[in-house]
Amino acid sequence: MHSSDRTLIGAHLSGDSEAFETVVRRYGPAVYGFLLNMVKDTHKTEDLFQDTFQKACQKAGDFRGDKLKSWILAIAANTAINSFRKEQRNRTVSLRQSSFCEDGRHCSSIENVVCGTEGNPAGIVELEEKRTMVRDALMRLPEKQRAALVLSYYQKLTYLEIAGAQGCSVGTVKTNIFRALKRLAVLLPDGGEGQI
Amino acid sequence: MKSHLTEDILIQYQFDLLDDAQRCEVSAHLDECGQCREKLERIRRQFSALNVLDNEAAVSDELIQKTIASIRQPKSLRPGARRPWMGWMAIAAGIVLAASLIFVGQSYLKAPTEKIQGKPLAGNVKSPMTPAVSENKPATVETSATATIAQADKVRIVPQEKIADKAPFAPASAIELVVLPSPDKMQVTIYNSADLTLVRDTRKLTLKAGWNWLQFMWNETRIDPTSLSLRPLEHADKIDVQQLVYPARFKDIGRWLIRSEVEGAVPFEITYFTSGLSWRASYEGTISPDEKTMQLKSYIRVQNNSGQDYQNAQTRLIVGQVHLLDEISRLAGRQYPYGPEVTNVEALRERFLGDETKYKLGFQKNGNIGGVGGSIVDKLYDIKGVTKEGLSEYFLYTIEGTEDLPNTWAKRLSSFDVKDIPVKSLYKYDEDRYGTQTIRFVSFVNDAEHKLGTTPLPNGTMKLYRQLNAEQNLSYTGGADIKYIPVNEDVELNLGTDSLVKVEAVPMDTRTDNYMFNDKGDVAGWDEIETWQIKLTNTRDIAADFEVTRNFNTDSWDLKMPGTSTAGEQAIEYKKHDARHARFTTLLQSRTERSFQYMVTKYCGTRKEVKLRQSQ
Lengths: 196, 616
Description:
Number of helices of chain A: 9
CATH class of the domain at 1-107 in chain A: Mainly Alpha
Largest interface: A-B, 54 and 44 residues
Distance between the termini of chain B: 147 Å
Oligomer: heterodimer
CATH topology of the domain at 1-107 in chain A: Rna Polymerase Sigma Factor, Chain: A
Helix content of chain A: 55-70%
């Protein structure tokens, strides 16, 4: 039976250790997808993923309303932004990074390219290149703008929900998204013929 | 709208960033203007590139499992957690507990700080030694989750048959390490003479039914790993602490393997020895103007250099000598706790733990503090009392309440404050021991008559002051080291020379007499007769007691004193102190001078034998 978010959180708060596991499984893909678009490094994504659900677990008592997904995504966004701030204070370089690619995730192994189950190998390589390009463009946005854009564009959160998550007004959210789009308009390939 | 729409407006239109009025306006324009529609289409195409990224991504089961495991333990212990804030966090004021864990295959991580109940404490407080529980899930145990600390108080008994027979070789992984609550009770017993401290620490460990691993770490501390001991305080019949493993290649780590038929929080006692904690007694004596009584205050200064913080610890001090086979500091400094060296520390610990409660002798609590020489203030604040108990061969001082003993800190605590102890001031002249100087001594006895005697007095330094007048002005009289003073023993404080009181010994006459000859007509025996004058000078404003000891360098002698005392003067008395020494005592009034003579006859050669025969 598909329990409602509210029921799950209630069960978790009353000590049911499996309730929160269901929450992690239910909203894990959305959170993971969001974080993948927010940070470059997959290891970092996994760390943030765990941090997000840990915070959500600790603060489950604060959850109000029905939209658990947007509540968890808000936590994920704040966790990601806080981690960027910390990183700026303590710049680190991952020793796990390969010298052949910019980050752990973009290194598509040759097996994946050659043995892809769908499409031709050339198509997969091209798609991977496009993804790299879009991600690079996203990474060049300031964190707050990136978070607002990713929450809005990919996670389909309303501007009001994003404002709640980021602790600012709807107007600020719109301004952030607009600035992000303006910057992307320069960074993304032109929408003319022959392009995407 | 006559002019064409800008790219900014079109982006805002596309992404619904315009308000309703603007939106209607733009829609109306687009209906009419093909050029702007084309521009909008190009923008749509450009931003469609964003669609190559997904809004969701498959999460590996491993990551989900890891996340769930991490939720059931504090964040601080998650593998891979980064703690750039550790530095400033450690500096922040507040009571913190830093847990450290070493993960398999990785270097160790320091856990973040955690607030402990109790008084706030300024400064950097760290506790590098913190246990953690690692649980290895045997296949036969059905419960999948670790009991969380919130559920800690519920204890469930699990049937024996549900527990795997075979113990796991090692923890399956360090991922499931769980931090423990802060210690409920902590007790440190400092054996000063041997640089040895016994730490007993009671805390609740959350066990899982089956096999549990408890990991201890003691890096940068002076703990003797061979002395670590763990025992459950409840359900002892259902919990079996099986072995303590020092994993290879890891420094400063020990893991206990615990078989438990109980699931939930169980209080455990962890005991170990450490070095680096010490204490020292100091005394302050204030002698009354007439030098007849003294106020004695005793302090105990506890110093912690063990590398470990002890918070809310009951602190106990052992007075007396402890015979120790091993030096704990040397054991603690070993690179690995295992190896060929065999220690007897465990046996020693048992011995200490066995005898502690034998003779409870007294309790003393200080209510008042009186400034030395300052005005006596009633109940300025509560001073912690020190309870004193007698052990079979030692004395145990227990400081009232609990203390925080942060690493590298020292604390001075009041031990006792006794007023009006009768004391005796004495000037000694003994050329064998002090040369030709007159030395001043203050003495009293550690007994009930002197308002002491409940406990021995530990080693320490004493500073003596003399109260000069009713305004309680003080003069520093001297300092002395006192050795361990058992009950009913004399305490004699050597205060050094005093230029106001002098003794001079002057030889007046030397001659020989009573010769004896042998068969050949040679001298075989004779008497040496010496006359000495002893001059005593007291320029102080109070009377002084003198004790003059003279060495005659022979055990065959006789002493005569011509009558020297006049009316009003105390007679000078002498007595044979030992075979070779005579001791003269007298009291000299203030600002007086007095001389006396004695004549000693020393019997030499055959005269000595004759004298001996006569005396028999």
